[in-house]
Write a structure and sequence with these properties.
heterodimer; A: 2 domains; two-stranded antiparallel sheet; 12 helices; B: 100 residues; alpha+beta; 3-stranded antiparallel beta sheet; 3 strands; globular
Chain lengths: 266, 100
């Protein structure tokens, strides 16, 4: 019971209070929960922490969290029907995607910056796994660019065709269709763990913000690629030219994202 | 004078006698105010810290892990004196009414 109570109290304390104050309160309550008599009448962890929180500081944190969550979710839902309905902007990432991504990443960097007295601990195992997954994701997007620019015909015919409601004869190349689907739905699915990583950054280790920043990067790179794949502008440059321009754009986004991730990990 | 002020007075009084850690303070006040939630007393203790009436430092112990001690500040001593005066005034007013 004591362990369970302390786990919940630690969570609430780190969520609602500034880091140093949270640690002081947790240290005090470790002693308090050791006393069977005091332990009997203990208030719920949330009720213990709530009166200790400075409203202004706590609401500032909530506002920052809401902005970071909004940035990642707006990007995540943008290629879905809901995103289209909300924004009424086809290929929305071309317009505002980088603004949302940059706002979320910069805010995460500033909010979870290293404090002077911050102790160095090994990188959490879960964080390393999350970063590895995101790096593989970004790597696969670049592999796609390489495959298409290297041998478009080979790439298109790689997995044959599939029947859909679009395309000549209602058939489309399976490879491009599947990749387009993956790049549309992965950002949506990734926005949920990205939010969870923000919570982890607040409660456990600020370096979880690195996973959030890399997730935003991966989402933006994917959306830029989807925008390119679904580009119906008939006056656009030939695909080799526009794809190369998009590749350069994605490379810049990735370089910035990796730099931000590195800074968040320091 | 509210109960909150009385608990604050007791906390400051205990701290004026020497530095103590959170659990020790709560344990002693629990005996005096058994019907008061520990979280309410603790919130007052943290409130004193936030207002600069007390400060925390990591103290050494002969056995076990280091603990965070609360130490009363000059501002805390001034607040203690003010609360004590109010308490004594209230006490004498009640005595004048024959309440003992």
């Amino acid at each position: 019971m004591k362990k369970d109570y302390m786990t919940r109290l630690e969570g609430w304390a780190r969520w609602m209070l500034p880091r140093q104050e949270a640690e002081d309160v947790i240290a005090d309550y470790r002693d308090i929960t050791g006393d069977p008599e005091l332990c009997r009448g203990l208030d719920k962890p949330r009720h213990v922490i709530k009166p200790l929180a400075n409203k202004k500081t706590y609401y500032t944190w909530l506002a920052a969290f809401a902005v970071m969550a909004l940035c990642v979710f707006t990007l995540g839902i943008s290629p879905t029907g809901i995103g289209y309905l909300i924004w009424r902007l086809p290929f929305f990432p071309n317009h505002l995607g980088p603004v949302f991504a940059l706002s979320g990443a910069v805010l995460a960097l500033v909010w979870f910056r290293r404090k002077k007295d911050g102790r160095r601990a090994p990188i959490p195992k879960g964080l390393a796994v999350a970063l590895a997954f995101l790096l593989v994701w970004v790597g696969l997007v670049f592999l796609f660019y390489w495959a298409v620019l290297h041998d478009l015909d080979g790439f298109v015919s790689m997995w044959g065709t599939m029947t859909t409601f679009i395309g000549p004869g209602n058939t489309v190349p399976r490879s491009t269709y599947l990749i387009q689907c993956a790049l549309c739905y992965l950002p949506f699915l990734a926005s949920f763990p990205a939010l969870y990583w923000l919570v982890k950054a607040r409660i456990h280790d600020r370096r979880w913000a690195a996973a959030y920043i890399l997730a935003v990067t991966a989402i933006l790179v994917s959306l830029e690629t989807v925008a390119e794949l679904t580009n119906m502008n008939v006056t656009a440059a030939p695909y080799e030219v526009s794809l190369r321009a998009r590749l350069l754009q994605c490379a810049v986004v990735t370089a910035l994202g990796l730099t931000g991730t590195g800074v968040a990990l320091c | 004078m509210l109960k909150k002020d009385l608990i604050e007075l007791c906390l400051l009084h205990l701290l004026s006698q020497g530095d103590q850690y959170g659990y020790e303070l709560l344990r002693r006040l629990h005996d005096t105010f058994p019907d008061t939630q520990e979280s309410a007393v603790y919130a007052l203790l943290r409130g004193l810290c936030r207002e600069g009436c007390s400060e925390q430092y990591l103290g050494e112990t002969s056995d076990g892990p280091a603990r965070k001690y609360y130490h009363i500040t000059d501002q805390g001593l001034a607040r203690y004196a003010a609360l004590l005066r109010r308490w004594q005034a209230l006490q004498s007013a009640l005595e004048d009414l024959g309440v003992k």
